[in-house]
Amino acid sequence: MNPLAQDARAAGARVGLTGDTITINGGQPLKGRIEVKGAKNLVTKAMVAALLGETPSILRDVPDISDVRVVRGLLEVHGVKVALGAEPGELILDPKDVESAHMVDIDAHAGSSRIPILFCGPLLHRLGEAFIPDLGGCRIGDRPIDFHLEVLAKFGAVIEKLPSGIRMTAPEGLVGTKIELPYPSVGATEQVLLTAVRATGKTELTGAAIEPEIMDLINILQKMGAIISVDTDRVIRIEGVDSLTGYTHRALFDRNEAASWAAAALATNGDIFVGGARQPEMLTFLNVFRKVGGAFDIHDDGIRFYHPGGELSPVVIETDVHPGFMTDWQQPLVVALTQAHGVSIVHETVYEQRFGFVEALIDMGANIQLQSDCLGSHPCRFGQRNFVHSAIISGPTTLHAADIVVPDLRGGFSHLIAALSAEGTSRVSNVGIISRGYGDFITKLRQLGANFVVEGE
Ligand code: EPU
């Protein structure tokens, strides 16, 4: 079995699936209410931030996803005590006894996650050394870590490449510095934040990512005692402090999950109330959703997304860093765009290879052409490099059932949506990978009236 399938099977087992294949009888609208919890792309970083505190941290609204389990395992091998709190989804993280971990244990716990790279700054502060195994994550491009390594080196980390991974030390301690990112990378910005807050002196970061999940990480670090200011034009300034305490924080909701369920409502002609979703972090998505022909009602406790009837309209989308249209939103929405009347265009400018999921949609009857040209006006790093990163979707096309192997997290969710909207019985395997980022998705599908069977159950 390939490593991806192994990860997916393991993840599937952890969410309570006895198999990692589901058989879906599609063609029925998804209707009902589900709740989203804290954002995968914040919660995992917030857990790492707990390493920086002298006292325990309490994190609320933690989703039951395998990426959280990976980070928990990594924290535990470094001596952090992790316990469940009083309310569901509450974690208590006690870093009092942080210690070096064996490379082999780190490697065993890292699984397919890219999070270990973010342990480096905090571990260098606490222990003077850190180790990163070969990193995984979704196969959506090269996903290099060059920005991270350059950032850490600028703070004074000494980096040694070993056959099994990368070892870092900080013999002189870490010192604040000026950093300019060549691209507003989410992970590299988090790397700077998690390292600079305890470095000696001031750090100035230009070209920073400013995603809402990063702003929430800044909220957490401020609660811990950090001094961070976010200036205009992607400049973040951090004044290092000698020590930080633990934090108590309720995580920002998962806007990527909310957008995925919204797309599922549209593609299946359904009506889904996403409890916990909020308007401000979804503004850009909501505009596009409305342009396609979707309807939404904003409530205090969530957002109702639904297909109001009538024809869906084609749109032109270019994915971008915040406040642009998130790359994680495009895959689920592409399924709905196969039902729009006319030609839609999606120009992916964040990852060079994020259209792998389209092949399965084409097999199901979608009319989608992929192009290596930039079909849009946003500056893009991939145009002259033969990366297939633009899609032309002509609709509407009837989707028919198929056997699908889920390739990655967001692409996998889009396959689920396609199978749910297609007439007939589809078999979707490797679904365990979806549990990396979608908490309790099997339960949620049941709550929405989906007609499916988990193989082996
Ligand atoms: N990049 C480099 N070098 C680096 C780091 C990034 O060239 O050292 C490039 C990447 O290859 C990519 C671009 O910069 O082309 C953006 O990458 P970024 O660092 O912003 O992404 P990330 O931190 O690895 C996070 C999320 C992704 C989300 C992106 C963009 C987490 C764990 N992952 O990834 O989420 O798509 O930001 O918003 O926070 C997902 O949830 O499915 C997912 C992939």
TrEMBL record:
GO terms for cellular component: cytoplasm. It catalyses: phosphoenolpyruvate + UDP-N-acetyl-alpha-D-glucosamine = UDP-N-acetyl-3-O-(1-carboxyvinyl)-alpha-D-glucosamine + phosphate. Pathway: Cell wall biogenesis; peptidoglycan biosynthesis. GO terms for molecular function: UDP-N-acetylglucosamine 1-carboxyvinyltransferase activity. ANK repeats lie at residues 341-373. The keyword Calcium does not apply. It is found in: Cytoplasm. One of its GO terms (biological process) is regulation of cell shape. UDP-N-acetyl-alpha-D-glucosamine binds at residues 114, 328, 350. Its main location: cytoplasm. Its EC number is 2.5.1.7. Residues 25-445 form the Enolpyruvate transferase domain. Keywords: ANK repeat, Cell cycle, Cell division, Cell shape, Cell wall biogenesis/degradation, Cytoplasm, Peptidoglycan synthesis, Pyruvate, Transferase. The keyword Ribonucleoprotein does not apply. Transmembrane segments: none annotated. Phosphoenolpyruvate binds at residues 40-41. It is an enzyme of class 2 (transferase). NCBIfam families: murA (TIGR01072), PRK09369.1 (NF006873). Belongs to the EPSP synthase family. MurA subfamily. Cell wall formation. Adds enolpyruvyl to UDP-N-acetylglucosamine. This is UDP-N-acetylglucosamine 1-carboxyvinyltransferase. The gene is murA.
